[in-house]
Automatic annotation (TrEMBL):
Protein name per Swiss-Prot or TrEMBL: Xanthine dehydrogenase family protein molybdopterin-binding subunit
SMART domains reported in the protein's UniProt record: Ald_Xan_dh_C
Ranges of residues in domain Aldehyde oxidase/xanthine dehydrogenase a/b hammerhead: 30-150
Species of origin: Craurococcus roseus
Pfam families given in the database record: Ald_Xan_dh_C, MoCoBD_1, MoCoBD_2
Lineage: Bacteria, Pseudomonadati, Pseudomonadota, Alphaproteobacteria, Acetobacterales
Amino acid sequence: MPDTAITDPTTLKFGIGQPVPRQEDPALLQGRGRYTDDIDLPGQLYCVVVRSPYAHGTIRGIDTSAALEVPGVLGVWTGADLQAAGFGTMSCVLPLKNRDGSPIRNIQRPSLAIDRVRFVGDPVAFVVAETRAAARDGAEAVLLDVDTLPAVTEASAAAAPDAPRLYDDIPGNEVLDFHYGDAAKVEEAFGRAAHVTRMSIRNNRVVVCAMEPRSAIGEYDPASDRWTLHVGSQGVFGLRGQMAKDILKVPAEKFRVLTGNVGGSFGMKAHAYPEYTCLLHAAKVLGRPVKWTDDRSGSFVSDQHGRDHEVEAELALDAEGRALAVRLTSFSNLGAYIAAVGPLMATGNYVKNVQSNYATPLIEVSTRCMVTNTTPVSAYRGAGRPEGNYYFERLLEQAARETGRDPVELRRINHIKPEQMPFKAPSGSTYDSGDFGGVLEQALRAADWDGFPTRKAESAARGRLRGRGLGNFLECTAPPSKEQGEIRFEADGTVTVVTGTLDYGQGHWTPFAQVLHEKLGVPFGAIRLVQGDSDRLVAGGGTGGSKSLMASGSAIAEAAAKVIEKGRLAAAHTLEASPGDIEFERGAEGNGRFVIAGTDRAIGIMELAERVRTANDPPPDMPESLDVKHVFEEAPMAYPNGCHVCEVEVEPETGHVEVVRYVSVNDFGTIVNPLLVEGQAHGGIAQGIGQALYESVAYSEEGQLLSGSYQDYCLPRAGDLPDIGFLSRPSPCETNLLGVKGCGEAGCAGSLPAVMNALVDALSERGVTHIDMPATPERVWRALQGASAA
């Protein structure tokens, strides 16, 4: 991130809980952001990647001779070249096991395909030239000779006995047969249930659609034998570790990652990609920096996709309507290769999140993770958390319909109660706090639940079908692990915070500065943030899993406490007192200072930092500075939760669906900055509405991507979204220093079920009881026609 200090004097006193505007925004809105494609290095060359136009086939040859004759082209490389150079491969980083205890059948993916192409977009070669245009001309001159093979694009179809086989050593295309839970106990619970609801639910595949396509620049310095990669990422420390260890096979100190501004990621830019190896290899061979920026059509096939699961969901209820057990049996589509965390969503994150905030005693999850001839799938905003909540909420809604129960009352009797905290869930999680029933009741009031019949009648008078839906959710965030919290008092009077998370649109600078201002009383306008330089880090978990403030906030708070310890000793010398008599306090203007207890003798923290730094001949036991470099160790995951209420209108003649009312009540624990939290919720809700009603990746039987541009892939526009009501009902988390719970992915978790439950409620009066996402006008129209015909 840029190192420019905040200068707005109106924000000097803003600490935790204040709605401080994002301090990053003025520079970004004025075009002063610095994204990877904005960087141009001296002597820079340009790279274009050659991708397979075939979904599946054996590579017979790659003719690069014509490409090398194109004016300006300096080199063309294939997978054989990278293999000969000794580069390593990419694979799944999760230690997952099959139900029989054997390890996952991992796939070692080379950066360029060598023997076989396995999806449209599979990179097979790359061209480097003096200009981008020359590199593109060279790429178009590369001749790829492939014997095409049959393709398979659906996970369930890949499991068929006669399905095309992607890998000779992976029978049945199955890389993982995951199982969690006591199958015998779950079966017994279903056997004694008074009612069982069963549903087939499709979790549609989506394109991530970050505003900024991926871009990177590779450099190599022969004098130091050191590599540098400028790249949009979610954490430079983790990416450096993966690239150095697995791909470059060099010590971490030989590889540097630099990330500036990032235009969105949502999980997609978290790990290594093939293009990064290509750039680094060419930079070393040619002795010049090499730059690559994807175009949007390339992003559609090369950026990892999200979601894509086929699920059989089951819920067992007793005679009173209380849940006895929930069971998910799924196919998970991993695409042609296993991304770093590709299998996580439909395995461990299903387990952690399917229970949501309900007191369900038994969980069973069975997932077959399959490879197919499609773009690899990895994390996308929520990464299994929204899905788990979605399945349970759809089951509850359908169970209420089947049993004639009030869906609100069914939720009430199944909610975990505050007096049950801490609650040990069958997933292994322990919920530390939450008032789930209170959140539900507040949401019902805010949404005017009881006034719905009047609105429904008004819609009917205009020929519209109106429905309402609830989306309760509880997410298990990623557990915060080692995170750097460095505080430096600079000579220019600013204070630098160094941390290993990374802002790719969230606005970290502002809440991190609020935490530091709250803890140390340093001027808010003097604080600056460094996140994107791996050389500055000794630890860093990156940003993902809604844990950034839990990790970096805790690291900053702990580092601030160490600053105060050093400050007491330094102040004791400066004020000529015993360290035991020195107290730290916030003054009337919110500024931190050290005071001799019981006196008015004091020194401000900024003045003290300056005196310590410039002291001549200081005493031996006096600190050389107030700077602290600290590593926060870890904390348990947290459990943000809430309730979304949605109302939709359907035009039955066309199937068009409009979201007309929306409100959410959320428990995100302690809220450091309400403005940013509400913005995060709005973003997640927008993406949830997009998946529910608009977005879906489509492939032909031959594996060709049919939705490869925004002419064929629909995103919601501003006019498709309603005003979104946001209310907060916090129960502070009890397992981290700040009491925060995370909020970045919660909007998706609440919106998917709220929207789809509302839609089914609207369609139910015409006999439709289920429809899969995305509920496009065509699908809605067909569902209505099918119901009327029946």
